[in-house]
């Protein structure tokens, strides 16, 4: 009997996270197609660029949570509730981002009209609630993780902690009033990612932090396929994780100083 495909396995772990994760992936792919036929821009970037990026990012995030949830020693009802809460929060978060793209206006830091300000306010509430759920998840993986390979469990704990640091960078962006430091948002940017090339851009450190929850556990998966014992795997994982976190801190400092990722000081 063949093992289930990853998508079927995700569905068996949490249907809501699996389904809405897939929905985000499909929406992101549709946005990529729309970018080929619609040249409408927002702050100099195709209006479908942001929902495409958020669709892929949130889709991967939801699938990651679905994959890890069964590694907790809590009741099935608690696992279901946590998963559906995160699913609902992220569904409406990306729905608002997509809606603003349809309207041809920016979703973040937009206070041009009461409606735009209200939408951004609700996005902030949804992200804050999701961050609180991440705090709960992190605490559960510290105190209620199921028995399993130590490197794998520790990789989830570390990944969640780095994810929280990335979320904190997002909070700093809100306080800053935008993602650029030393210039207004919407200046010249790098291809695809559109990170500012004339000023510091907080999105770089934000991205590094948000995807720590995939990078660190993936390294643990690769280490688990070697002949290293658990102790050496944990040591390698710790060294890599420290370097990864320091990279995020450095990129955050660089952005706060107004220095672009590539190029000299503006």
Per-chain topology:
Elements: H1 6-13, H2 15-37, E1 41-42, E2 45-46, H3 49-68, H4 76-103, H5 114-143, H6 150-176, E3 180-181, E4 200-201, H7 203-210, H8 212-224, H9 230-256
Antiparallel strand pairs: 1-2, 3-4
Helix pairs in contact: 1-2, 2-3, 2-4, 3-4, 4-5, 5-6, 6-7, 6-8, 6-9, 7-9, 8-9
Keywords for this structure?
266 residues; mainly alpha; 2 domains; 4 strands; 69% helix
Task: Report on this structure.
This protein has helices spanning 6-13, 15-37, 49-68, 76-103, 114-143, 150-176, 203-210, 212-224, 230-256; strands at 41-42, 45-46, 180-181, 200-201. The chain is mainly α. The chain folds into two domains: 1-147, no CATH class; 150-266, no CATH class. Strands 1-2 form a two-stranded antiparallel sheet. Helix 1 crosses helix 2 and helix 3 packs antiparallel against helix 4 (76-103).
Number of domains: 2
Q: pLDDT average, as an integer? A: 92
Count the beta strands. 4
* Percentage beta strand: under 5%
Order of H and E elements = HHEEHHHHEEHHH
Radius of gyration: 19 Å
Which spans of ≥5 residues are poorly predicted at pLDDT below 50? none
Overall shape: it is: globular
SS-derived structural category:
mainly alpha
User: Distance between the terminal alpha carbons, to the nearest Å?
Assistant: 60 Å
Helical content (DSSP H or I, runs of 4+): 55-70%
Largest beta-sheet characterization: 2 strands, antiparallel
Strand order of the largest sheet: 1-2
Give the helix tally. 9
